[in-house]
Amino acid sequence: MGEVKRKRGRKPKNSKADSLDFPPPTTATATSVAMVMDDVFSVSNVELMDPASTSKPHQNRRGRPKKLSKHMENPDKFPQLSPSRRGPRGVENGEFTASGDVFPSDIALERVQPEWPGIVRVVPAMDAVVKVFCVHTEPNFSLPWQRKRQYSSSSSGFVIGGRRVLTNAHSVEHHTQVKLKKRGSDTKYLATVLAIGTECDIAMLTVDDDEFWVGVSPVEFGELPALQDAVTVVGYPIGGDTISVTSGVVSRIEILSYVHGSTELLGLQIDAAINSGNSGGPAFNDKGNCVGIAFQSLKHEDAENIGYVIPTPVILHFIRDYEKNGAYTGFPILGLEWQKMENPDLCEAMGMKKDQKGVRIRRIDPTGPESKVLKPSDIILGFDGVDIANDGTVPFRHGERIGFSYLVSQKYTGDSATIKVLRNSETLSFNYQLATYRRLIPAHNEGKPPSYYIIAGFVFSTVSVPYLRSEYGKDYEYEAPVKLLDKLLHSMPQSPDEQLVVVSQVLVADINIGYEDIVNTQVLAFNGKPVKNLKSLANMVESCDDEFLKFDLEYQQIVVLRTSTAKAATLDILATHCIPSAMSNDLKT
């Protein structure tokens, strides 16, 4: 037989069959502590939709160009339309705005498209969606006497009643200037930040210029959607300057970890695309009502199109909290850690009856109001009349259960709550006031500049999550010292004003020879007196009349300096490093 001739054209590629084998499982390194609101949430795969303004270059399609149709080859034979059939056909941002010609494909679509009398499609109030421009100036936690270089970002927001605008808290964090631009406008209006809810990642803005509010209708809020309900996310993500619309369905409703606030609140998981710049944009239901705010997404090689939305119960809680108190006061939290009671032997040993269910208290925050009425090993049977299961869940909706922390988060700071516990086989009920929880290592500084104190080149500072991120990068959970991480995850403050004070660094000088390698080491005591916070340390050092300054550090290290020499050398060290003051402003008062 003769050689088979290959047909003309491009040589086919060697295609490989897609493997159906799953990749080897990877261990999740995220650490989440069950202290009702979680000590610190730091899942590396879940990231905030950081405001962005970059766009990807357009890529041309590969292949041969399409052939022109016969009508396009012969313009004289192009079908003419009657004047009644001619009209604007251009589409911009979901609305018919620009005029254009009608091509044959459009004619066919119009000819076969059915008419549905009595059915009106609800279009979301996209004119209420605005673009947020923010200039950020973050504090430098490693050099707390100065700030970092400013940078700009863009995100999304939407107008609500009362001449207010909602967006994400991380979109305006450390803001120095915020501007808003309406859809279809070329004017940017200066905005004022009214409130920032760090835990729920929501911020409220307003604009003083009356021109901004002309022709803008506020968004109406809808009810919490059900599973498989359609949602439409509207915003200004990367890839362009005009408004963007993506659609999907509600995939999951549960207590989610909020990355920015390092807390756990109710959240929606959707399969609509949420990209950088979508932050603060509304999510509409099929009735055109807002059911949430886009704020973060899951980035993982085994997951696609997983976005998260702040639901209306959390949004309305934030708005009512601001209206009630004139400021954001936060979400109340039970200051305790609990253990599941799913083992029958454990239940029997704790004196529980067959019909009793609940969770066991492991530890209680000594600074919280719960410490006055609850004790370790108490079994929490119910909260505000709702029974708690052995796995810590309560009934939510038909066929759904949710963590009982949802019941706590629905209340406001200062509200009364009734908690039913089992103690020594006896059922007790307590009524107390709810409060917010303060961590030993806070997740945020609430927009305040970091505190510091300098003596003889020793820079003393307080530890927070932003401080750890500044010192060790975004992977601080792996890079930071073990003792600091242990305190971050498990330590509770013993007093309301307790702080974790460390020697951040030593500015080298003649007086501190031999101490240069001390970095991020906790200060335990000064001249035999325990150090509770940075202000108490600064006051003790400034008022010290002893011959020597003695600092007791962890790992049994000590630092000894002559008092007179140390205080005299401080001024020269400050001048050498261009530091304006030996202490931050909050320590001077």
Automatic annotation (TrEMBL):
Keywords: Hydrolase, Protease, Serine protease
Region spans: Disordered: 1-27, 48-97
Superkingdom of source: Eukaryota
GO biological process, one term: proteolysis
Biased composition, class Basic residues, residue ranges: 1-14, 58-69
Matches recorded under SUPFAM superfamilies: PDZ domain-like, Trypsin-like serine proteases
UniProt keyword Cytoplasm present: no
GO MF term set: serine-type endopeptidase activity
Limits of the Protease Do-like PDZ domain: 441-586
Entry similarity comment: Belongs to the peptidase S1C family.
Protein name: Protease Do-like 9
Protein species of origin: Cucurbita maxima (Pumpkin)
Gene from which this protein is expressed: LOC111495295
